[in-house]
Amino acid sequence: MIIPAMRYRDPEAALRFLKEVFGLREHAVHRDDAGGIVHAQLMHAGGMVMFGPGRAGDFDRLLIDPSETGGRATITVYVVEHDIKACYERARQRGARILIPLKDEDHGGKSFTAADPEGHIWTFGSYDPLAPNVP
To answer: Is residue 132 part of a domain?
Structure first.
C-alpha cells in the first residue's frame, strides 16, 4: 500500500476543500489540545491521503511548499474516479483551479487535473490501473 502525505499551511481549509470540492471523506482527524489539526487521513474508494500542518521537524525539512516552486510539482496525486464527469463538474463549479480540463486519455478513460488552494496537483481519472481487465 502506498499513501501520499502532504503538508498544508492551512490544514482546516484543506480539509474542507478536499471534502467539499474533491469529494474525499474523513477517515481520521487528529487534533491538538487547542483543536488544531496535527494529522488528517482522507479516503476515496480504497485509497488514502494523509496531511498535516507544516512544522519545523525532520520530515518537513524534506518538503517544499508548492508556492515556493512557481506552481510546479515533483509529484501529483492520482485519484481513480468512476463518475469522472460528475467529479469534474463538482470541482469546476466549486472553484477548483482546473489545470487540464476533462479529456480522453490515450491509455484509456478520461481525466482532468486540478490544483487545490495551496497548489498541490491532483489528477482524477476513470482509468483504473488495478482493474482486472487492465494488462
So the answer is: no
Number of domains in the chain: 1
- Mean pLDDT, residues 45-52: 93
Cell triple for 32? 491538538
Residue 135 domain flag: no
Answer whether residue 135 shows pLDDT above 60.
no
How many percent of the chain have pLDDT more than 90? 74
Q: Is the pLDDT of residue 56 over 90?
A: no
- CATH number of the structural domain spanning residue 22: 3.10.180.10
Q: How many whole angstroms separate alpha carbon 50 and alpha carbon 61?
A: 17
pLDDT of 105 higher than 70: yes
Give the residue-averaged pLDDT of 103-126. 95
Nearest alpha carbon to residue 118 among 26, 21, 27: 21
State whether the Cα torsion 35-60-96-80 is positive or negative: negative
